[in-house]
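pls ignore typos typing on phone
magnesium ion + seq
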Amino acid sequence: MNESPKIEDIEAKPDNAIIKIIDLHKWFGDFHVLKDINLEVKPQERIVVCGPSGSGKSTMIRCINRLEEHQRGQIIVDGVELSNNLKNIEKIREEVGMVFQHFNLFPHLTILENLTLGPIWVKKVPRHEAEELAMYYLEKVQIAEQAKKFPGQLSGGQQQRVAIARSLCMKPKVMLFDEPTSALDPEMVKEVLDVMISLAHEGMTMIVVTHEMGFAKSVAHRVMFMDEGRIVETNTPDNFFDHPEHERTQLFLSQILH
Amino acid sequence: MAVIIHTEEHVNLKPPTSTTGIIGWVRANLCNTWYNSLFSLLIIYILWQVMAPFINWALINANWTSSGAECHQSGGACWSIIHANIRFILFGFYPPPEQWRPLTAMIILFSLLIASRNRNWWSKNLLYTWLAGLIIMGLLMKGGLFGLTSIESDQWGGLPLTLMLSVFGLAAAYPLGVALALGRQSRLPVIKSLTVIYIEMIRGVPLISLLFMSAIIFPLFLPEGITINKILRAQVAIIMFTAAYVAEVVRGGLQAMPKGQYEAADSLGLNYFQTMRLIILPQALKIVIPPTVSVLISAFKDTSLVVIIALYDVLKTTQSTLSNPQWMGFSTEAYLFVGMIYFVCCYFMSTWSRRLEIELHTGR
Ligand SMILES: Nc1ncnc2c1ncn2[C@@H]1O[C@H](COP(=O)(O)OP(=O)(O)OP(=O)(O)O)[C@@H](O)[C@H]1O
Ligand SMILES: [Mg+2]
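k done
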């Protein structure tokens, strides 16, 4: 997979990164969570991020759509730099979709309303168009028949698929996933991963924080290992799993792969 | 299949009589244990001791039509105090020939309130109907147009005044309270501290003192020649007071909202106002319906405090009839009557809020 011509295409084009993170630092109070993060993501590239709990994976991807504010360095998404400028933040949020560990659906709205909310209010799409769009994506994640239900009436796996569809309705250029399957019962993990895999095949740019190593092996172009706020190693999945360069990566892999 | 056929005859059997009907209910709920039976008997005994004399007084020995003098002779309740004085109790000093006007206004108000109970009817049209209704009610009360004689607001009184103070008071205090709660959560320090000061100051003083201030102190600060209607001033005091309490209740709801809801809204690109209006407030306000209704109910009852600035609300008009020598001494009957009026209104609010809660429930 990682030696398919697709990747070479991506890597061949210089400096067309859709996400560029340069020398990023972040502190929570005195606590230095992110240290010197540098990352470039090309369009259609898929990156899996893993690392021990507390290593700053969530914080890093949350910085990309400004759910967390960074204190040093630059984050540039599709040519727009994240700063305190609200216009820029809005622009970037429109282009970056995010899927959370705990789904974060809006419980007082039906599934359909959850999906149409963004298009109608942010993109000013007429309601009927937004509903068509929503139904299209609901069919894609295979829960169109639940459109009139409320989130509380769906299973965890179904809710997470709705959450993915909700992000897709904004037609984002990049999707961020923060441990999308780790709050799910084991039997529901696959249905969510399947949706993500089909998304990958359609060429979506994705950054996925996950410990699903099977997913990383089959879908990722690059696997990134973080520890104590640093990117310790970035590698192709094959090298990452078979010949990890760093000791800490080896240790981590031996722990999670048993 | 065969099994089902065999059991079919059992399906429609009636449950044993001892578990249904009145006897079954009494057994299950009043006498299921020996101490429960004892309690039931005790309570029935107490009820008998209390209720029997009351029913005797209120219904059996009651005087329904006799004059005050005759009432004084008998030991029963004297309900005639109510209908002999009903016009004054309900309308205060509003000129009697014109009293059809506040009556019509109240009927309009009640129809609107009842129509608004049904959430399926909530629409732009209902809003316009309300606006039209408010204008007509104002016109009826005030007059001065279309051949209606003008009635100054110092002659307004009784039930219309109570209803006006409470309906407008609650209707205005609620959105103001929500705004204050949002202000208190604001990240802008100026807005935050101003709302905190406001809320804490208002909550630190009793309503009576606010009413006094509005009636006596506030006019001193107005420039010469400018007066603001006394009812309006009391109305503003009630709104300001209630809003502070609503704000604190709503703040509780806002704090109960999980962070994930804000994050999901942010990551969709919704701005602050959209997030609040579409995501946070609908959920937060729903959570706090029960405490909000408590605040509103107590605010409704607190409108009776306007008596201390000499406004004749329905409690004051009732009290005034008792100073008439003919009706002196029948305060129990009179106060039971106003009590009923207050009770009906509060009961309306609380059943409506319970219904609203059920309708808004979405399964989580
Ligand atoms: N809002 C916050 N305030 C202070 N510290 C925080 C905050 N959020 C996270 N942290 C701390 O920052 C560190 C990194 O957190 P982060 O959530 O990014 O880790 P993670 O790699 O995603 O871990 P996990 O696998 O458990 O999700 C942790 O030590 C955490 O305690
Ligand atoms: Mg995390």
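Residues 331-360 of chain B form the longest helix (30 residues). The mean pLDDT of chain B is 81. more later
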